[in-house]
Amino acid sequence: MSGYILRENDPSIVLTADQVDRLVKNGDGDAALLYLLLMRADRGITEQELQSRLRWSQLRLNAAETGLQRLGLIQRPAETPPPAPAEERPVYSAQDLAALLEDDRSFRMLIPQVEEKLGRKLKTADLQVLAGLYDDLGMPADVIYLLVNHCITRSEERYGPGRRPTLRQIEKEGYYWARQGLFDQDSAARYLKTWRDRQQGQSAYMQVLGLGQRRPVASEEKYISDWMDKGFPPETVALAYDKTTIDPAAAAPGKSPSASFSLRHAVAYVRFVISSTEYAGYKLNGASLWCDGEAVSGDISVNVATGETRTETPRNYATVVVEEPQALSSAQELWLVTLPVNLTGKEVYVSVAMTDGTKNVTIPVKVDVKELKANAVNTITVANVSPADNRFAWYQPEETRYLAEGWAYGEANTFVTSADGEEITVDVRARGFFNGCEEPKYAKIIFANNLSGTNYTLAINGKRNNPDSPADYAEEVEIGSDCKLTLKTTKGSYLGWFGKVGLLNAEKKFIWAFTVWYLPGGVTGHPYKSGVVMDRYIGDSYAPNYNNWHGVGAYFQWGRPFSFSWGSITYTVASTNATDLKISASNPGVFFKTDGVSKHNGDWWLGDWTGKRTDRKDDFWGNPNGTAEAGSPANGTKSIFDPCPKGWMVASPAVYKEVLAGKDDAFEKNNSVQSMIYKYDGTNKAYWHFSGLKWASSGGNPNNNQNDILGVWSNSSYHGYEASDHNVYQLYYRTSQGTWNDGGGRAAGMSVRCMQDTENR
Hints:
Layout: E1 5-6, H1 17-26, H2 29-40, H3 47-54, H4 58-71, E2 74-75, H5 94-103, H6 105-118, H7 124-136, H8 141-159, H9 167-179, H10 185-208, H11 218-229, H12 234-239, E3 268-274, E4 283-291, E5 297-302, E6 309-315, E7 317-321, E8 332-338, E9 341-342, E10 348-355, E11 360-366, E12 371-372, E13 377-382, E14 398-399, E15 407-409, E16 414-417, E17 423-427, E18 430-432, E19 442-448, E20 458-460, E21 477-478, E22 484-489, E23 498-504, E24 510-518, E25 525-528, E26 531-537, E27 556-557, E28 572-575, H13 581-585, E29 590-593, E30 648-650, H14 653-662, E31 668-669, E32 674-679, E33 685-689, E34 709-717, E35 728-734, E36 739-744, E37 749-756
Parallel strand pairs: 3-13, 16-24, 28-29, 34-37
Antiparallel strand pairs: 1-2, 3-8, 4-7, 4-10, 5-6, 9-12, 10-11, 11-14, 15-18, 17-22, 19-21, 19-23, 20-22, 23-24, 25-26, 26-37, 27-37, 30-37, 31-32, 32-33, 34-35, 35-36
């Protein structure tokens, strides 16, 4: 406020009739009070002094100040704005760039830092943009680095994890910074803090107004910003809808009086207050309200004539995700919208999701909630969250794999036995997104190298699914309270061996499945330049240079953890209706074909399809591509849906690019199998077999195209910029066409080769 000039500054504080009329007509008590205090001052007065004497927040002071400016009672002296950037941007030649890189160490050091943040090598056009910001605008290198990070944050919030901005987008924001005079770290830091506070604040307003977790559109953002500037908290704005009345007497002369009406929200507003001493060093990712046997969210329709509401697609949970996670060293406040519901006598839990950067922890905490009232703020306090709050023995709260907003059962989706008759014990407790989990009660063999239905080579807790062997027969095996299963594999008539075990709930419906792979001698890896790579596909039990088509291994639809056999009777085929992850998890033996499904574009996953890139789940296997390159340049991380054994993850595009660059031109073929050869160390061979695939359009038996098609999935989406691009990066060759293709639709069933996970997840 310092620098303001009063139009009339009279120490006696005499107000003219005009001044009084303006203040009264405006009806803003804060503006009037601020004006009186300014009139009282006989000297300049600072903002800090005003805040102290009035005991107001900065937002409240700013709102009153704006009101006085609008009334013409105060005015701010003209300020000299920073010079606007030139409209015509300079063009830097290759020689200019070379000279700048040679002569200016700060600019030279900036380039690798920006490349690391963007995850790609900068091209000449990109360097020209950075040179313009640095050399032409005079923006220091450290400020440009803050600018780049800010643009990355904005891009990920708007378009999803891994999405990176273009240099033109960074340039546009840089010119805005220049117009704001942000040429040093302090001013940039203040701007970024203000921006973060405003973004975080907008989310709370969107939640209490029932507008969801999306970003506000321009008109919504304008209203929310106005409320924030005037100091109205979210709950006040929400409750302002409680009763709105238009006075009929206030109608203009000659106009019909407007009708009186009242507005009430049909939904309930829920405020979480979450704290933890034990997890004080963890950041809060989000929280969910979950109720056993009662819908708390869903699509709601309202009959405006009767006020009657109807809930469609009801769900027994409601979730809020934190955009910028903060440490639980202090209590965190989260907001979400639910259905109004009576919860008396119900089991109600708040699942709190946290991370320390390496470990993900989700704790379901039982809470005492009797009712979620409509048109009201319902506060639920979850204090001092600890592991002891987890009451479910079948749920493991800790998980080191990337969750991808999903869940799984067991620490891996493929388990390996290395010797004939070997027994292994596996823990099949649920982990990850708690609201998606159910208690596993039974296990069932879906197939076990079952070409003909007679090769019963897998036993669970000593039981097989062979009806001709009554002594050890069991269609389902009950899972004990420790949630552990003992698996035993025996060598069958075919050495190319793997099987699939399904997990079932109390109603004996599938909730998950995992692969059991008999691999004599265990897993072997080859040291590639891009990492240690397995010597075969998942499910292949033969030697790498095998001469038997039975060893082609398992097939996977991209992003799903469930294996499919080369046999024709081991799975069913159905047109996809996978609009929810539960549909995939509850149908592990179903190959989702996309024939005749609108808007599928070759993807088994439909989701809540709107046609946007964000509808695609590019992170299912842990490596979404945020670049325009074909295949992510990063290795990615191991996700909870990854089909590889513990310590391994689906190979990244870098592996396949290395193989393509160094492969032998001629394929090697024996009597039964054709292979591409890559000498990973210049001498020793790695065999990449032509194992065929299952067509996305039909889910057909792959035997017809074996030796014709080499098809192997990577863990990455093809690239991150084209909304229409549903493809993922792959290694693909078809002999009959003589063509290589590095992008393919996700619904096909293809082989998976794993690379070593350096984090041993």
